[in-house]
Amino acid sequence: MAVRHGGDVAGTLGLDRKSGFCKSTSIFYSKREPISLPPNQSLDVTTFISSQPHRGTTAFVDAVTGRHLSFPEFWLRVERVTACIYALGVRKGNVVIILSPNSIFFPIVSLSVMSLGAIITTANPISTSGEISKQIEDSNPVLAFTTRQLVSKLTTANLNLPVVLMDGETWSLEAMMETELSESRVKHRVELDDTAALLYSSGTTGKSKGVMITHRNLIALVQATRARYGLEQRTVCTIPMYHIFGFGSFTTGLIALGWTIVVLPKFDMAQLLTAVEIHRSSYLSLVPPIVVAMLNGAKEINSKYDLSSLHTVVAGGAPLSREVTEKFVESFPKVKVLQGYGLTESTAISASMFTKEETERYGSSGLLAPSVEGKIVDPDSGRVLGVGQTGELWMRSPTVMKGYFKNEEATAASIDSEGWLKTGDLCYIDSDGFVFVVDRLKELIKCNGYQVAPAELEALLLAHPEIADAAVIPIADVKAGEYPMAYIVRKAGSNLSESEIMDFVAKQVAPYKRIRKVSFLASIPKNPSGKILRRELKKLTTSKL
């Protein structure tokens, strides 16, 4: 696959420096300085991160226990855990699964696994045993890291999988981190294009797909993070580390920059604000529902907490409306809100804001990230469009995934022969190069920053003995962004209720996938080929609200 990643486009014929659009190639080029990647093709992301110079002292702080890890302590524990899992037989190409809430140990496990050339796959702690079982069946891990509270989900899924407890006394991560290093191990050659992480993303068909993220992808993310933020700041981690937003920031990117990361096991508004006050956090990475919650409680928050150290909120995971952004800045005038846009398939980054001036382009996701190229393509005709025209965003960059794990068909449908990733999002790029996300071509629902596949919920609903047909669409919500809503056709003679349907689904899926509203129809609108006409259902929903 021949791929060109940004680079020097100063001499490109017909390049408009204001928008970044080149008429001769129909490509939008990033206006940011291109990132540099290591010339050495044999390099793992852990070695790269550990070699980066900075003057940071404290790497991680547990916000609950107060436990601190300095950078030397952190890297010593990474080295020790690497040696221990190697002794357990983990080798290059093996998969290791981690099922854990946020923890100061999450990055230690992840970086240890990747340093061997093995592959870390992260699981959502609120997933059901059935959902985790599917991920285990697909990824076939040789070892698992989890907590005492979550271990039953793993053992239910696979009785033969060896488990290391991150909070246990025997077979524990703590014991690994205290093990003195013995004789040196054989270090396998790790290439930049080897898979480092396997993060699962909901597919439109309902089947979750493993996104193969390489060492090159993660190193490129580190360099893009460096360009955006700079060295040695303080932040509080409350977004999930298993998700690409948290994984990219808190297990790779910010460690390389010498940041102090204060870790909360899960989101709690009071704990988050207290941590900002106590640890003098300057940055917060948040998903839109938390931004909205802060806005709604702004008066009480400002009177109760000292947030004078906070100057930047980085919002990602879903779009943040102009209205919310403006009101947030009014309520917290010393804080700027940097929005961004990315996918798991693009290792979290495609477009982003860097400066306060850029935040004033309300409604946008910022400029194309460093070394990112973009195309706007008409989804019907395939014609490449220009400035201000809306179509599907295609992107090419060193952060684009290797492909979908064991799924060549899906990979070929998402990445073309020239390395262009089809994002599935309808966007336009304006005359100043700012990216605006208009709608999704993909049918995924974004609830609290999580992806929900309608097809997965529809398959569950159709398994109910009293449901003849079903369709799931998003319904807008100020706090969550979107919720799944179901349209149901009951079988003849059935009096199935809304609450019974919601309970039926809730027992089988993670909380963010639960149906929050049900409406009954005589039939589901479909096209001649049988595809659900979701836009018709969305119009119907809007007319009822």
Automatic annotation (TrEMBL):
Domain AMP-binding enzyme C-terminal, residue spans: 456-531
Glycoprotein recorded as keyword: no
Cofactor: Mg(2+)
Gene3D superfamilies: 3.30.300.30, N-terminal domain of ligase-like
Molecular function terms, GO-annotated: ATP binding; CoA-ligase activity
Pfam entry (one): AMP-binding_C
Superkingdom field: Eukaryota
One term under GO cellular component: peroxisome
Chain ranges passing through the membrane: 241-264
Keywords, ordered alphabetically: ATP-binding, Ligase, Magnesium, Membrane, Nucleotide-binding, Transmembrane, Transmembrane helix
All copies of domain AMP-dependent synthetase/ligase, residue ranges: 54-405
Family per record: Belongs to the ATP-dependent AMP-binding enzyme family.
Full protein name: 4-coumarate--CoA ligase
